[in-house]
Specification:
The structure holds 2 protein chains of 2 kinds. Chain A is mainly α. Chain A has 2 domains: about 60 residues; about 240 residues, Orthogonal Bundle (MetI-like fold), CATH 1.10.3720. Helices cover about 75% and strands about 0% of the residues of chain A. In chain A, strands 1-2 form a two-stranded antiparallel sheet. In chain A, helix 3 crosses helix 10. The longest helix of chain A has about 55 residues. The radius of gyration of chain A is 27 Å and the shape is flat. By secondary structure, chain B is mostly helical. In chain B, helix 4 packs parallel to helix 7. Classes of the chains: A mainly alpha, B mainly alpha. The interface between A and B is large, with 96 and 101 residues.
Chain lengths: ~300, ~325
C-alpha cells in the first residue's frame, strides 16, 4: 500500500493533534480535580467558620461575659476565667522544661542525649490527648488525691503544650546566626551567658510566638481536661487542689446536647470565643512575623489537633 | 558546663513524662491485663456485670459477677473510621497540595496555604459542634438515604441509614481534620523539590500537570506516605469530634457504613462515669488498659511515620 506525502503528513498532524488534544484534556481534568479538592477544603472551612460565627454572634449578649453559669443557662464568666487559669497554668508549668529542651536541642546538639530528647518530644506529640487526660485522672486526681482541680488540669495541659514550646524554641534558636555565638564564645563567655545573654534575646520573638501558639492549643483542648479539671459553675476561689473548675470547651461539648435553648446559646457563644481566640493568635503571629513564623515554624506534621 | 547540664536535666524531666505516662498506665492497668488476657482484644463484649452483686474472685482479682471486658467493637470502630477518613483525606490532600504548590499565582499561594492550615488550628470540639449541629442532619436526612438508594448495590453502602450518627459521619469529620496535615506537608515537599527536576521534565516536553504527576509526585512519594501515616495516628487518637458524631455504640459491630460506632479514644470519655460505679475498680482499670492499647498503637504508628520522614529528610539534605 502506498501513501502520498500529503496523506502521511495529514495523518501525522491528525495523530499529533489528537494526542495533543488528549493531553490537554487530561491536563484540564487534572487541574480541575486539584482545584475541586482545594475548593472542598476551603468551603468546609468557610462552612465551619460561618456556623460558629453566625450562631456565636447571635448568642452573644452582655450578660454572657458578666454572669456565671446557672444550671444550663446564665453566662460564661466562670468558664472564661477557668480556661484562662488552666491555659496560663499549663504554660507556666510547660515553659521551663520546654524552653530547656529547645535550648538543649538547638545549642548542644551533640552526643546521644539530643536525639533521645528529640525522639521523646516527637512521641509526646503523638500521644492522644485523652490518654494524657486519663493518665492525669489515675495519677493526680485519684492516686495523689488532688480531686478534679486546677493543678491536675494545668499539668495535663502542660504535658500537651510542652513539645510545641520545645520545638518552636529550637527552631527560633536555630535561626540565630552562628557568627553571633562564635563572637560571644571568643570573648570568653560561657555556655550560659552565650545562650541566655545572646541567643535567647535574639530569638525572643520566635520563642514568644511558640508560647502563644501553645496557649492557643491549650485554650482549644477538651479531652485532657474532662477528667482532670471537672466542671464548676462557680468562680475559682484560688485553691489549686480539691476544687473543680469550669472551662469553655466543656460548655461546647456538653451543653449542645442539652434540650434547652439557653444551653445551646451558651455552647455557641463558647465556641465563638474559643475559635476567635485561636484564629486571632494564628493570624497575629502570621502577620507580625514573616511567613516562616507561626504554625509554619513547626514542621507541618507536628501540629497537633487541639 | 553547668548550664548545659542544667538544661539537659530540665529537658529530660520534661520529655521523660512519656515514659512516666506509659509505665503508670501499665502499672494501673496490670490487674485488668492479667484478668482479661488476650480476650480483651478479640471479644466483643464490654459488660460491667451486676453493679449491686457481691464481688467474686476470678484469677485472684475481685470483679463483679458477670463482668467481662472485651473491646473488639472499639478496635473495629477505630480502624474503620480511620480507614474511611484516610480514603477521603489522601486524594483530597494530594489534590489540594498540587493546587497550592503549582496551580495558582505565587501571590495567592502563601495566603491560601495559610487559610488551609487554619483548618488545622480549629479545635477538635468545634469540629464536633459543627458535625453535631449541621453535618449530621444534612447527611442523615439528605445524603445518606440518597446514597443508600443509588449506591446500595455496593457492599456496606445499602441498608438502613440511621439518623446520621455513625461510621461515615465520623470518617468524614476525621478526614477534614487530617487533610490540612497531609496537604501542608506535601505542599512543602513539592515546593522544595530541586528546580532541575522540573526543568528536565519541561525540557522533555511535559506540560505543567504532567511534570507534577510523573516527576514531582513520585519524587515526594515517601513524604506522602509518611504524612498519611502521621495523619492515621492523629485520626486514631481523635476524641472529641468523634465522640460527638459517632453515635457511641456499645458492643455493636457495624453492618454498613452508616452504623453507629465507638472509637477507643471516645469510649474512654463516654464510659468513665459508668465505670466509676464499679466498686471493685476493675472497670476503671480496664479503661486504663484501653488507654494503654491506644497509646501503644499511636506510638508505633507515629514512630514508623517519623522514621520514614526522617530518612526522606536526610536524603533531601544529601541531594541539596
Amino acid at each position: 500500500m502506498e501513501f502520498s506525502v500529503a496523506e502521511i503528513q495529514e495523518a501525522g498532524v491528525r495523530n499529533v493533534s489528537g494526542r495533543g488534544l488528549r493531553r490537554r484534556l487530561f491536563d484540564y481534568l487534572g487541574w480541575g480535580l486539584c482545584a475541586l479538592a482545594f475548593l472542598l477544603l476551603g468551603s468546609a472551612m468557610m462552612w465551619i467558620l460561618v456556623v460558629v460565627f453566625m450562631r456565636g454572634v447571635s448568642a452573644l449578649n452582655f450578660s454572657v461575659i458578666t454572669h456565671v453559669t446557672v444550671g444550663t443557662g446564665g453566662g460564661l464568666l466562670n468558664a472564661i476565667e477557668g480556661t484562662l487559669v488552666l491555659a496560663l497554668g499549663g504554660i507556666a508549668l510547660a515553659a521551663p522544661p520546654g524552653l530547656a529542651a529547645g535550648i538543649y536541642l538547638a545549642e548542644f546538639d551533640r552526643g546521644r542525649l539530643a536525639p533521645t530528647i528529640r525522639f521523646m518530644a516527637d512521641v509526646l506529640v503523638g500521644v492522644p490527648s485523652i490518654v494524657i487526660g486519663y493518665f492525669g485522672y489515675v495519677t493526680m486526681v485519684v492516686a495523689l488525691g488532688w480531686k478534679f482541680s486546677v493543678a491536675a488540669g494545668s499539668v495535663a495541659l502542660a504535658i500537651i503544650s510542652l513539645p510545641y514550646i520545645c520545638r518552636t524554641t529550637e527552631m527560633a534558636l536555630r535561626q540565630v546566626p552562628r557568627a553571633l555565638r562564635e563572637a560571644a564564645y571568643a570573648l570568653g563567655a560561657g555556655d550560659g551567658r552565650v545562650t541566655m545573654g545572646i541567643c535567647v534575646p535574639a530569638a525572643l520573638p520566635g520563642i514568644l510566638t511558640g508560647i502563644l501558639l501553645a496557649l492557643a492549643i491549650s485554650v482549644g483542648e477538651t479531652a485532657p481536661l474532662i477528667y482532670t479539671a471537672g466542671w464548676s459553675s462557680y468562680l475559682w476561689t484560688g485553691h489549686f487542689t480539691n476544687e473543680p473548675i469550669g472551662y469553655l470547651t466543656y460548655v461546647i461539648w456538653s451543653f449542645i446536647t442539652e434540650p434547652f435553648e439557653s444551653a445551646h446559646a451558651l455552647a455557641y457563644a463558647a465556641a465563638f470565643f474559643v475559635t476567635l481566640f485561636v484564629l486571632v493568635i494564628s493570624i497575629l503571629t502570621r502577620m507580625v512575623l514573616d511567613e516562616n513564623a507561626g504554625w509554619r515554624r513547626l514542621r507541618p506534621w507536628e501540629r497537633r489537633k487541639a | 558546663m553547668k548550664f548545659r547540664r542544667f538544661t539537659a536535666l530540665l529537658a529530660c524531666l520534661g520529655v521523660g513524662i512519656v515514659v512516666v505516662i506509659v509505665s503508670f498506665l501499665a502499672i494501673y492497668a496490670w490487674p485488668a491485663i492479667r484478668l482479661n488476657g488476650w480476650g480483651f482484644l478479640f471479644d466483643n463484649s464490654w459488660n460491667l456485670g451486676q453493679l449491686y452483686g457481691t464481688p467474686i474472685t476470678v484469677h485472684g482479682q475481685q470483679i463483679l459477677p458477670g463482668a467481662h471486658y472485651g473491646i473488639l467493637f472499639l478496635i473495629v470502630g477505630t480502624l474503620l473510621s480511620t480507614l474511611i477518613a484516610l480514603t477521603i483525606a489522601v486524594p483530597v490532600g494530594v489534590g489540594a497540595a498540587l493546587f497550592l504548590a503549582e496551580g495558582m499565582p505565587p501571590f495567592f499561594r502563601s495566603w491560601l496555604s495559610f487559610f488551609v492550615e487554619l483548618l488545622a488550628a480549629i479545635p477538635s470540639v468545634v469540629f464536633g459542634l459543627w458535625g453535631y449541629v449541621v453535618v449530621i442532619p444534612f447527611l442523615g436526612h439528605h445524603l445518606f438515604p440518597f446514597m443508600a438508594s443509588w449506591l446500595g448495590f455496593i457492599p456496606f453502602f445499602g441498608g438502613s441509614t440511621g439518623s446520621g450518627y455513625g461510621l461515615l459521619t465520623a470518617g468524614f469529620v476525621l478526614a477534614l481534620m487530617i487533610v490540612p496535615l497531609i496537604a501542608a506537608t506535601l505542599r512543602d515537599a513539592l515546593v522544595s523539590q530541586p528546580a532541575a527536576l522540573r526543568e528536565a521534565a519541561v525540557a522533555l516536553g511535559a506540560s505543567r500537570f504532567e511534570t507534577m504527576r510523573t516527576v514531582l509526585l513520585p519524587a515526594t512519594r515517601r513524604v506522602l506516605i509518611g504524612s498519611s501515616i502521621l495523619a492515621t495516628g492523629r485520626a486514631l487518637g481523635e476524641t472529641m469530634a468523634v465522640l460527638m458524631v459517632s453515635g457511641n455504640a456499645l458492643n455493636y459491630l457495624p453492618h454498613n457504613i452508616y452504623t453507629p460506632i465507638s472509637t477507643m479514644a471516645s469510649f474512654i470519655v463516654s464510659q468513665l462515669d459508668s465505670a466509676l460505679q464499679d466498686p471493685t475498680g476493675m472497670a476503671v482499670r480496664s479503661l486504663a488498659e484501653v488507654a494503654l492499647v491506644l497509646c501503644m498503637i499511636s506510638i508505633v504508628v507515629n514512630g514508623f511515620a517519623r522514621l520514614l520522614l526522617y530518612y526522606e529528610g536526610r536524603q533531601r539534605a544529601r541531594l541539596a
